[in-house]
Amino acid sequence: MEFLVCISKTPDTTAKIAFDAGLTKFVEEGVSFILNPYDEWYALVRAVELKEKLGGKVSVVHVGEAGSDQMIRKALAIGADQAFRIDCKPKDSYDVAQQIAEFCKGKSFELIFLGKETIDHNGSEVGAMLAGLLDLPFVSYCNKLEVEADKINVSREVEGGVELSTVSMPCVVSAAKGLAEQRIPNMKGIMESKNKPLEVLSPVNTEATIVLEQFELPPAKTGAKMIAPDDIDGLVNVLKNDLKLF
Question: What does the alpha-carbon distance between residue 4 and residue 82 come to, in Å, rounded to a whole number?
């Protein structure tokens, strides 16, 4: 089977976030970047597990610049067989989807995985956009997946229960927690990753679909306000006047 995993780069969750004076550019200097956890822990690992069980090849694709190569090598160390980097700085989610869709043309990927979202933007947009551009079925927030012949049996959590579905391949799947367990690259995998192919591709021309006005940091945290358990009026006052909840 041919598997494709779309991977993205995100700031480490412990990184201190800052913007330029005009609040229009994220300042990357001094920030540590990581492989997006939803792409790594769930999408990539499940693809590798299925390859080990069923045979085939796992490819990874990333839309980004040369600074992402080390992160891509980690994906190869975890178990991917080959990697592709589309050499451009993404304009927006739709640009990422367009670049990957163009890359997929003429190829025979049976399962295309990606994380349900990135931990920086939390948009959950690329999977649905990619499936639409490729005219393929799409399963979002998948937390269990098994392959049966030319179909997959999947489940995902929905409000009030679990939804079970059977979907024909090829298809696009966004991975949620529970789809797989995190794997730590071992020394053998790290050494082998250095010799696995990482091909750099030219991007296609696209137009940005959104205009960034400015970034805005959340308000600084304030100290906790203690309210006595029997002070109902005080609690209502905080909820109404301080938090503006009603």
Answer: 10
